[in-house]
Here is the input.
Amino acid sequence: MKADLTVSPASESPAVPHVQLMDQMYRLQRYFYDFTRKYYLFGRDRLIADMPVSPADHVIEVGCGTGRNLVLLARKHPAAKFYGVDAAHVMIDTAQKKMASKHLNQTVFLRQGLAEDLNANAWFKVPAFDRVFFSYSLSMIPTWPAAIEAALANLKPNGELWVVDFWDQAGYPKPFAKLLKLWLALFHVHHRPELLAYLQKLESDGKGKLTIEPIGQRYAYLARFILTRPTIPSAG
Ligand SMILES: C[S@@+](CC[C@H](N)C(=O)[O-])C[C@H]1O[C@@H](n2cnc3c(N)ncnc32)[C@H](O)[C@@H]1O
Here is the structure.
């Protein structure tokens, strides 16, 4: 399927390779990441509360960062298995240490890797996932269509893709929305209106069922896409 997409702008093609950029960015930030992000990455706890997870499920977070979400999910669903992948070696290092200190390293399995290269079997020895989720990571992934393709390709039939990320802040004063976007761009974070259009096109093509809920006055969104027909879309 060729979706109508405006892929990431040229300003998102940095001279530094993406993995190196993420490692540089989080080398020090990882030490205060969890404390600071709770003030503006809203909707993550809603995703954790709303996502259905059965005891035998395999659930992966793509762009898992410090593993904050995976710890909460693993505690909530102790019989399920969780996986995390992140581009930044330094984030995976922090997440690994966190899982060990919380005795979750037999429940949460982590590795460094790029979202677009996700491979359940090669990386984690599982055939496919029941849920794949992205929490504030697609807004940092210039190759986001390939990341979504890889997520869908690694989902079981009737598996679910969940995304929580920045929306357009349409319910707030325009200067607030503008300033927020400028500030986020300093951290290589980009609002992607075309991403929701991409998911809507998957639904209109009969590939699955999509629901989108606002967090706040469209500060962020929580999207749930249930894959009813296994598909590997091509974003071209
Ligand atoms: C804003 S943080 C979100 C971390 C975590 N999901 C959370 O909710 O706290 C975005 C994360 O995405 C990771 N990331 C960026 N590009 C990526 C890519 N192409 N593949 C995998 N992870 C990526 C970054 O290294 C970073 O840890």
Q: What stands out?
A: DSSP finds nine helices and seven strands in the chain. The domain at 10-227 is CATH 3.40.50.150 (Rossmann fold). The two ends are 9 Å apart (CA to CA). The chain has one domain: 10-227.
